[in-house]
Every structure is written in C-alpha cells, then in structure tokens.
Amino acid sequence: MILSINIFLPINNDLLTLDTNLKKMVGAKHPILYAAAEHLFTAGGKRIRPALVLLVAKITVNNKNLLPEHRRLAEITEIIHTASLVHDDVVDECQTRRGIETVHSIFSTKVAVLAGDFLFAQSSWYLANLNNLEVVKTISKVITDFAEGEVRQGLTNFDTTISIDDYIEKSFYKTASLIAASCKGSAMLSQCNIIDQNDFYIYGKHLGLAFQIIDDILDITGSIKSLGKPAGLDIKNGNLTAPLIFALEESPDLYNLIKRECQNKNDIYKAIQIIKTTKGIQKAQDLAQEHIQASLQIINNKYNCQLGTTLQLISHYVISRLN
C-alpha cells in the first residue's frame, strides 16, 4: 500500500499550501541557514504529521472550515519534526536521509546543529504567535521530550538489559509525543471538550508508537533504496529496538555480538541475519499491530465519518509499510 494522494484527498490542497508556506516560514537571513532549511523541505517526506493536524481540525470544526491557527499548527508540527531529523542525523552520523545527503554531509556538523536549532527557534516563535497558552504548553513539551528521548537512547547504547517497556517509553519521547500532542493541539484550537482532546491525543500516541516500531523493523529488513539511508543503522549505533530486544531472548550469539558492540567487520550483517532467524521481527510487528488497533478503536467508536475513515487509512498505511 502506497501513501498516495488519494488517501489525503480531503486535504490535498491544504497540503500543497503547507509545502509553499514551509519554505516562506524558514526564510533565514543567512544564506547557509536558508539553504540548509530549504534542502530539508525540498527532500519531501510523507507529511503525515501535518496531515493529521489538518484532518483532526476538519473533523472537529463546524462546516469543516479550517482556522488559520490550524494551518499554522500543521506547519509548526512539520518544522519541529524536521528540526529533530537534522539533530538525529548528526547524532547517528547518518549520511543520507530520504535518499539524499543529510545537512551535515553537505555543509558541516556545526551548520547542521545550528540549522536544527534555528528551526526549533522558528517553530517556537510561530507557536507563541498562536496566542493560545494551552496549545503552547502542549506542543512545547514535545521539544523537551525529544531531548529526553535522545539522552535516554544515548545512555543505553548496547545495553542488553533494556526492556520493551523502556523501549516504548523512549519511542514515545522520540516519535509519538509530537504526533499525540499535535493531534490534541488541533482539537484544542477547535475548542473541543477535554474528552475529545484526549481521544485524539491517545489516537496520535498509539499511531506514533506503531510508526516507530515499524521504522525499527524496516531498519533491519529494508534496503538502502527503500529506506533512503543504510540498513542496520540502529544496530551500528547501539540503539536496541523492539525486534532486536525480542530476538535477544532467543539468541546467545546475538547477545554476544551486542555485548562486544558489533566491533568486527561483519558483525552488523551477522546481527541482522540472526534477528531474521528468530521471532523478533514477528513479535515487533505484533506489538505495532496492537498499537494500530488501539488507534483505530478511538476512531471507530466516535468518529465514523469520511474524514475519520482517512485517519483509519493512515493507521492501516503505517502497518502496510512492511509489505
């Protein structure tokens, strides 16, 4: 299943406007910063996060008419996400992203860090200008969650004692927090009651966790062409993900590779092959499916409409990325 233009049909024009506005919003005075930021947005991406903001907005406002604040929140969400990718690539020493060179590969690590900081600063400025303190509080928490997730990941490199619960908590900070908070923020801008706000938060949380788990499976099963970056990067960096954690329960050989931090030439390849012979990938996929079902339950119970169906399609798309 491909995330085609048909899935986003109800908001297709809104997403086209978003792409145009993103480049205007990051107009830095310094040409290098501007070039770095523009490079990121030109690289594209699935735009799932802003799409969710727009869809939740249309479900929760009268006559499906988006407020300017909804559009701005969608843009802020994508800027925050993009800023986090720049810093992730520096930390992970990743040379490609979405099939093109990363910012620090083209410019330098210093420029990449500054570009990420610049984008976070821009997002904070536009967020403050929404003039909605509760939304500001909700979205601002995401930026601290990113830092928390990175620190936790850095402190547990090659740590074979990490549990699935630890992994899920870290995945919430790194991925699900933004999706959950932006869905809730959109409902807040629509002046929904607290129950509906929390519904969309829970939907986004479970969708985000499933998205991260599937990403981590693809890091093992995917190719450079399909991923847009090298496979096995998590293993190389000592980032123990769901399929690896599950596989460790079955394989002493894998445990030994991780304990010696995959230092030998073919260790990463060996680790991937071992994981594929265990039930690690299937167990991780089952875990992702549980979170997808939890996200769907929210929508199925209360938001049975065309736009709700679009949210369901996005949930199904997340799992289908393995096909």
From TrEMBL:
It comes from the Eukaryota. One of its GO terms (biological process) is quinone biosynthetic process. GO terms for molecular function: metal ion binding; prenyltransferase activity. Signal peptide: none annotated. Keywords: Isoprene biosynthesis, Magnesium, Metal-binding, Plastid, Transferase. Pfam families: polyprenyl_synt. PROSITE patterns: POLYPRENYL_SYNTHASE_1, POLYPRENYL_SYNTHASE_2. Its cofactor is Mg(2+). Belongs to the FPP/GGPP synthase family. This is Prenyl transferase. It comes from Schimmelmannia schousboei. The lineage of its organism: Eukaryota, Rhodophyta, Florideophyceae, Rhodymeniophycidae, Acrosymphytales.
